[in-house]
Amino acid sequence: MIFTVLFYIFVAATVIQIIYYFYFSVFAFEKKKTQLKSNEIPVSIIILVKNEAGNLANYIQNILQQNYSNFEIVLINNASSDTTLDIIEELQNQHSNIKLVNVKNTEAFWGNKKYSLTLGIKAASHEHLLFTETNSTPISKNWINEMAFNFSKEKTIVIGYKKLKSKKHSFSNLLFRFDNIINTIQSFSFTKTGSAFTANSGNIGYTKSDFFKINGFINHLNIFIGESDLFLKDASTNKNTVTATSNASFVESSGIYSFKKWFSEKRKQSIVTSLYKFKHKFFLRLFIISKILFYPLAIYLAVLNWKIITPIIFVYFLIQYIIIGKSAYKLQEKQILFFLPILDICLLLLQITIFISTRISKPTHWK
Fold first, then answer.
1. 14-41, pLDDT tens digit by residue?
2. Cβ 129 vs Cβ 208: under 8 Å
3. In a domain, 38, yes or no
4. Which domain, by its residues, includes 338?
5. Which of 22, 202, 250, 256 has the smallest CB count inside 10 Å?
6. Residue of 69, 19, 4, 103 whose CA lies nearest to 301
7. Which residues contact 103 (CB under 8 A, 6 or more apart)?
8. Where are the transmembrane segments (predicted)?
9. CA–CA separation, 351 and 84 (whole Å)
10. Residue 157 CB burial class (10 angstroms; 0-12, 13-18, ≥19)
11. CATH number at residue 157
12. What whole-number distance in Å separates Cα of residue 198 and Cα of residue 25?
């Protein structure tokens, strides 16, 4: 009797997981778009900086050297306490397409990133905006062109991919990259079916019209994080959002995450996730819960009756390998395939830990 009940729960969890992986195939097996030479629409690159004196001058060369003729760079100095402002002023004197927005702390918006971004967006000269960060380096000199290519009359929000920098002989780094891949597969799959819910702030584009149509970040200005995700919640529709999936549209993190930093970022993200639309929270949680049920039941039931359970486990992992493998290949992360089951289990355990940690000590806000 107990075996039968657990078996049906296991089958249900497995079916749910497989349905999700088939859904993710929307991204995994998407045909590449044919890139035609397009007219270069004017683009404003928005970059928020704070205390980046040691890095900014070198980083900005990656943007200035892009193979794109019609763009400006809006550098927002978010109340830096070092010599960042001086460096931006020097860069502005050297390059006519660099614009400075100097934000000073005010009592009402002390250190508020969204307030600073709003001032930068208002100062931008062009309708089409691309957002990146000083820790996100374009891997190609055609980054602007590849992202801007996706804008159209109908598609006014473009979601790009941010790779995490790899580190040799580091399992934790491999785990962080696997987590990033899973998040990207979910993000791109939902977006392609008209239900965008998350994007990386280091690689996203949208129009000024979309931003001001929803009064910018007004609905979540008091929440210091999640500017891209919560913008999508308000502005994205089932028709206006598209993903940029060509390799040249990727950016890569310039540093290596420590476990402490990654864990902290995931805790922050869990706060943002709680603010998603109900349908997105439901589907994301169902994916995690069904996976939590799958692994322990698979092990327990296989011990009791391996002849019945083993074929089901085999089919599950085969489908998982195909979908995640194809996606990882597209995202230039083929290495994760060699450790897929281990990474999947470890990430699941960490997600449970993060959930418990956030519930025990949930902060008022994050800066």
1. 999 999 999 999 999 987 765 555 568 9
2. yes
3. no
4. 2-28+279-360
5. 22
6. 4
7. 76, 77, 78, 79, 115, 116, 119
8. 6-29, 282-302, 308-324, 336-357
9. 37
10. buried
11. 3.90.550.10
12. 18
Among residues 272, 294, 324, the one where a domain terminates is: 272
User: Residues with Cβ < 8 Å from 227, sequence gap 6 or more?
Assistant: 113, 114, 117, 201, 217
Whether the CB-CB separation of 60 and 131 falls below 8 Å is answered with no
Residue pair 324/337 in contact (Cβ under 8 Å)? The answer is yes
Query: What are the tokens at 48?
Result: 């928020």
**In the chain, how many domains are there?**
2
Return the structure tokens found at 203.
């690689």
Distance, in Å, from the CA atom of 271 to the CA atom of 360, rounded to the nearest integer, reads: 13
**21 and 147 in a common domain:** no
CB 124 within 8 A of CB 49: no
Q: Is 252 helix (H, G, I), strand (E, B) or coil?
A: strand
Statement to judge: residues 112 and 248 lie in one domain: yes
C-alpha–C-alpha distance, residues 269 and 197, integer Å = 13
Q: What is the pLDDT of residues 180-199, one digit of tens each?
A: 999 999 999 999 999 999 99
| Residue 215: band (very low, low, confident or very high) from pLDDT cuts 50, 70, 90 | very high
Both tokens of residue 214? 């929803």
Whole-angstrom distance, CA of residue 58 vs CA of residue 163: 20
Say if CB 207 and CB 156 are below 8 A apart: yes
**Reading across the β-sheet that carries 136-138, which strands appear in turn?**
136-138, 251-253, 162-163
In whole angstroms, give the CA distance from residue 59 to residue 191: 30
User: What are the tens digits of pLDDT across the range 256-288?
Assistant: 778 999 998 999 999 999 999 999 999 999 999
Query: Which DSSP state fits 241?
Result: E
